[in-house]
């Protein structure tokens, strides 16, 4: 296709994406850094993410990450905050922010937006969580976590309109949801920045499995891991025992991994790398 046709297509897509947004965001989220092209992602880069605002994230996980000097992204939802025994409230989320960790948006009510009919409710869910975070001094997130790791093209357009810089999905559809699972290695040349794949850690994972996946992180790529509760009372299959988690982090420390939050990927200019990701046109639901 000639360049002008590319431009025209891009304009049509941009117009269509803008037209389906109910209203513009109240203010833009932080822009990607300008200037000279930065170095690519270095070898041995791992991204840690933690979903659903479990109390164990502040009480147990954060001190271990802090001890090792690791970055991480915590994806917050208010869905289960009434259960104060097992989940954080917003003050707890603010404490994670003050410790230097990234706070990501995971919708206010943990709603699902992969279908065309459910996509329009996404901006309202995002903004409601943004407001609750702002009330405790947490800045507007720049990273979104797809609920149930499920996504669709309409919601993707709305996320873009909301100014999101990054969003993380899971292991599907490329890898099965059961067994000693894994997800694709994130490569900004292959994966759209709003569809970053992750390996979902479950109760079957062993230290050798975790180590072998982390070691796949060659230069230009990153291995992204998705944790839930440590341990997880709600979903035994997604639970990771505290001693196992400690061992996983020790592997990363002993082998000198570069351990980051998702937002830190902008250091390596990944937002400027054009990806050819067929997933931008895919509708995927982990419920199917
Ligand atoms: Zn979740």
Task: Tally the structural domains.
Answer: 1
What is the CATH level 1 assignment?
Alpha Beta
User: Got a strand count?
Assistant: 8
User: Architecture, CATH level 2?
Assistant: Alpha-Beta Barrel
Parts with pLDDT < 50 across at least 5 consecutive residues: 1-25
Strand content: 5-15%
Summed over residues and divided by their number, the pLDDT gives a mean of 90
As a whole number of angstroms, the C-alpha radius of gyration is 18 Å
- Quickly give the structural class: alpha/beta
Order of helices and strands: HEHEHEHEHEEHEHE
End-to-end separation in angstroms reads 36 Å
The 3D shape can be described as globular
Total number of helices: 7
Bound molecules: zinc ion
CATH topology: TIM Barrel
Summarize the main sheet: 6 strands, parallel
CATH superfamily: Glycoside hydrolase/deacetylase
Provide the helix percentage.
25-40%
Protein described:
With 288 residues, the chain is of the alpha/beta class. The protein is built from 7 helices and 8 strands, in the order αβαβαβαβαββαβαβ. It has helices at 3-19, 55-68, 90-98, 122-135, 153-161, 207-214, 242-254; strands at residues 45-51, 73-76, 102-105, 143-145, 166-168, 199-200, 223-227, 258-260. Strands 1, 2, 3, 6, 7 and 8 form a 6-stranded parallel sheet that branches. It has a two-stranded parallel ribbon with strand order 4-5. The protein is globular and about 45 Å long. The two termini are 36 Å apart. The model is unreliable at 1-25 (pLDDT under 50). The site of zinc ion has 5 residues, from loops.
């Amino acid at each position: 296709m000639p360049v002008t046709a590319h431009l025209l297509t891009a304009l049509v897509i941009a117009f269509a994406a803008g037209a389906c947004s109910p209203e513009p965001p109240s203010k833009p989220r932080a822009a990607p850094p300008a200037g000279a092209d930065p170095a690519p992602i270095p070898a041995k880069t791992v991204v840690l993410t933690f979903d659903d605002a479990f109390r164990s994230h502040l009480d147990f996980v954060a001190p271990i990450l802090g001890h090792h000097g690791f970055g991480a992204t915590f994806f917050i939802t208010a869905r289960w905050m009434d259960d104060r025994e097992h989940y954080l409230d917003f003050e707890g989320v603010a404490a994670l922010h003050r410790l230097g960790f990234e706070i990501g948006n995971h919708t206010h009510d943990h709603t699902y937006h992969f279908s065309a009919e459910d996509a329009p409710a996404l901006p309202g869910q995002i903004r409601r969580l943004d407001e609750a975070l702002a009330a405790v001094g947490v800045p507007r997130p720049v990273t979104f976590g797809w609920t149930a790791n499920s996504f669709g093209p309409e919601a993707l357009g709305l996320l873009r309109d909301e100014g999101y810089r990054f969003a993380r999905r899971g292991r599907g559809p490329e890898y099965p949801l059961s067994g000693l699972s894994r997800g694709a290695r994130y490569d900004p040349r292959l994966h759209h920045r709003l569809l970053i794949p992750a390996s979902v850690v479950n109760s079957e994972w062993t230290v050798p499995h975790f180590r072998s996946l982390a070691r796949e992180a060659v230069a230009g790529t990153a291995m992204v891991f998705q944790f839930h509760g440590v341990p997880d009372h709600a979903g035994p299959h997604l639970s990771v025992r505290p001693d196992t988690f400690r061992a996983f982090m020790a592997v990363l420390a002993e082998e000198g991994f570069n351990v980051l939050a998702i937002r830190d990927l902008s250091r390596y200019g990944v937002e400027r790398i054009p990806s050819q990701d067929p997933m931008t046109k895919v509708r995927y639901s982990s419920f199917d």
